[in-house]
Every structure is written in structure tokens, then in C-alpha cells.
Amino acid sequence: MDNNRFLHCDYLCTDTVPNMNDVRRLKDGRLFTVGQIGKMNQGGKYGSSPSGQFLFGRVSEDEGKSWSFSFIRQLPETTALTIVGDFLIDRDGRIHIFFLHIYSMDPGFRDSKAYHGDITYARLDDADGNGMIYKKIDALDRYTGSMNCVLQLASGRIIAPFSTISHAAGSAFVSSVVYSDDGGDTWLASNDVSVVSNESNIESGAVEPIVVEAKDGVLVMIIRTVLNCFYYSVSYDEGATWTQAKPTRIPSSNAPGGVLRMEDGRIVLTWNDVLGHPMHGVRYSFARQCLHAAMSDDGMKTLKGARIIMRKRADDPDNLLNCYPFVTSASTKEVFVRPFSVQDREGTMWVQPQAHLIRLNPDDLTAEEMENSFGEWITDCEVTENGILMKPTVSGVAYACVNFPYASEGTIRLTTGGALPEGTRILLADSYLDRATFLPENRNGGYAEYLKDIYASLAPEAAGEWTITWNKDSLTLTSGEKSRTVSLDKWGRGFNHLSVLFEGEDAELNITGFSMRGTGGMETGIEY
């Protein structure tokens, strides 16, 4: 396994998504996950064979490096595709599993009226699969296509967030939760939370929510949207009712996140802090090339770090997806993250996404400085221990990007060598921008107009020493004994990505030094 796709974490194993959901710890210390064997998509219909569908459990006795089966049970279901969404091990050791129960869908992702399904649920007494019950959750009888979070509150209430298609809401998807106060015997549904995006795509609206107890008595729902950031909603009554959704200041493409409140109260958020190519239309981004993680120690008001933990590698396609992170507790100080990859250089496809299990210490995300670390740069150019030799590789564009600890105020020093290629630009952003964003075929019309607002651009005078400083008001580049300052009045936030790019078949540039120092976290805009 080529593990250089993972940064700031420990890689444990890779499997397929049907074999490895998220990973949770049993009372005896072993790790546990669930999977399923089910129907295949045949033109958007799921009533065909095989009629038998199975749920199975797996356990690990070596902290997730290897797995064995603990049980397999046939589900009493023959007419619809039944997919494990997420699961929870409650304080009594019982296992609660939620299923996406799908009768039909539009394989072209256009017609919302073609989507039919509901939510089913199983409860097991233990990891051996004993005492299984299986039933439909009548509290929320609508199609859902994904689920990324389940949690149990201090009161014992179990909360499962979903997004479902509701034609009455004026948008394709709305977000809500189902909750139970009696261990899963009965379920109730909250109000719907909607997001108006004025998009006709089936994945618009309020999609794939995750929920975290930001502080005692306050739940925050973080919602995927097509509006280039997460939205959020708040509940003050343990999830029974939710406030109107508002935008956060957390950049995000059209992709979901994962979140966990640790035992000490710190919160870990994982998500695609990515914008740009590939685009749907000219208004929103479907980019998922890199997966990030950040830590909050103030109840989601501020995020620290925002570091890449799973990245695009050389020779990965430009439409690579590293996404759908589940986050669960590994210990009092660490978390497990289980994302998956699709369309990578190994050729994985949506019919069989690759699930990866990694272990992360949030303390490793919160440094306020960085030195060289050229192995972390994302580029197709030549990378050595001594730096990066930049040459145009695709469509005449040379591109190199590095993620550094998020800072609202900071200083970066770059050392470069050679003759400065004409048109060299330095880009600073608070999201990852893939090189494909800047290829000539992606610069036309509304696409280019959209891109100008997601980064700040600087032009160095000459190769040599480049010093970049910024605060909330301005950004200054000093190179070739000249300084240029750019106003950040309309930016109002910090940075955590730097890119260098230029064009020209015979042009090249050496980056031989990089250092960064900065302070201040990402202000999320979440209020409660």
C-alpha cells in the first residue's frame, strides 16, 4: 500500500466501503465495524435479484490493522436495496444500526421524483449479533441517500441526522434528525431544516448533516450545501427542534464532513476544505481532492489547524475524490477517521469505493509554524528533500501547492532560484485549489469569474527571497527589494494554502526553502 496519501496521522488499513463502516470500540477493548452484502444498482431499480441481503459484523484485536468476522445475519428484506448508513454502540453495549432503504432512484441525478425509499433500523444485543430486531423507522418516511453521524447524549437520547427529499420544501433535500429516548424502541422526528440555493441539481438544499454537542445543552448541525460553505443549525432541546439554517465561514465544496466531541470537550472536524475544479455549471464546486482536519477547543467557534490528512498524489486524476469521513473515538487523546477514495490512480470506481482507516491526534494539527516539509507539497513537478523543481507538466502549466497551519496573521518566507518565469503568480487561499482549476480549458466564462473570489493573487518581482506577511486587513509580498500590498477588506479571514504557478514550455523555477509562522484560527461564524 502506497501510504504517502496520508499526512499528520497513522495509517491502519484499507478495505472496501461495504466491508468497513465507521469503527467503534467495544467494552472489551476490541474494535468493531459493520458491513453488508446487498443488491446492485440496475438502472436505478433495486427490486431485482439477489433477493437475499446480509448484515455482518467484524472485530479487530490489533487496533484496526486486521479484521475477522463476528457474525452474519440475513435481513428480512427482499424488495429494496438496504445499505448500512451508520451505527452506534450505546452505553449498555447494544448496537444500533441505521439503513438507507432504497426502492428506486434516478441514475442520472436529475429527477427527484424518481427517488423512493425510507429508513430502516436494526438493534443487536452485542457484537456477536445476538437478539437482532429489524424494522422501519416510521417517524421519517422519505428517501435518504447517505448518513454520516449517530450520537448518544448524556441523557441517553440517541440522535441520528439525515437528509431526505421533501418536495414541499422548495429544495431537493432537507435535513432533520430522528431520536429515541427508549433505546430504539420508538422514534420521533425533528422539524426539517432547509437551505435555499436556487439550484436544480438533485444534491442541492440541506444535504448530509452531521451533529455535535458543541457544549453541554447545545447541539450544532453542520450541513453540506452547494453554496461553497457549510451551513449550520442549532438545537437547545437535545435535537427535537432546530433553528433556521445560516451560513458558516467554513469553506467547503459540495461534500459532507465528519465531527466528534472528545471526552475532554475538544471537537474534531474533518471535511473537504476544497474549492474549484471540478465544477457543476459555474456556481459551485464538486472538488474533493484533499481531506482536511481541524480541532476546536471553544465549542466550534474557532477551528485550529485545518491540515490536510488525505491528499491528492502525483498521477492521481484531477477528478479524484477523498471524502466521506466518519470520525469516532480511539482514546481520550485520539480519534479514528474512516474516509473513502474514488477515481484515484488505482482506478477505483463508485461501485466499489476504497475505505481507509487512520488514527489522528488533534494535537498534531495545531502547530503555529512549519519548515520546508517538501514531501507535503501537492505537485506533479519533481520533489526532492532539497525542494521542488517546477516545470510545466500539463497544458503548459507548472503548479505546486502546500497546506500550512491556518493563520489569521502570519509570515511566509520562500527561497527560489533560477530566472523568474514570466507571469509567475503566488496564490493564497483558505481552501485547497487543484492545479486543474488553472488549466486553460477551465478559465472561460463564468467559471473564471467565480474563481477570482476564492484566492488572493500576488506577482513576485524576481526569483530569490520572497516574504509574505498578512493580517486581517492586508497582504504584503516583498521580493526583489520591492513590496506590494493587497487589501483584504473584502476577504476578512486567514489563509492555510499557498500555490505557485506559471506557464511556458521552457520555463522552470526552483523552490528551495519554505517557512511559515502564524497565529489565529478559522472563525467559523457559528453562534449560539
How is this structure best described in words?
With 528 residues, this protein is an all-beta fold. It folds into 2 domains: 10-366, Neuraminidase (6 Propeller); 370-523, Jelly Rolls (Sandwich). It contains 1 helix and 42 strands. The strands form 10 sheets. Strands 28, 30, 31, 33, 37, 38, 39 and 41 form an 8-stranded antiparallel β-sheet that branches. A 5-stranded antiparallel β-sheet has the order 18-19-23-24-42, with no helix packed on it. The longest helix is centred in the last third of the chain and has 7 residues, at 445-451. 50% of the residues are buried. The mean pLDDT is 93.
Give descriptors for this structure:
2 domains; 528 residues; mainly beta; Jelly Rolls; Neuraminidase; single chain; 47% strand; eight-stranded antiparallel sheet; five-stranded antiparallel sheet
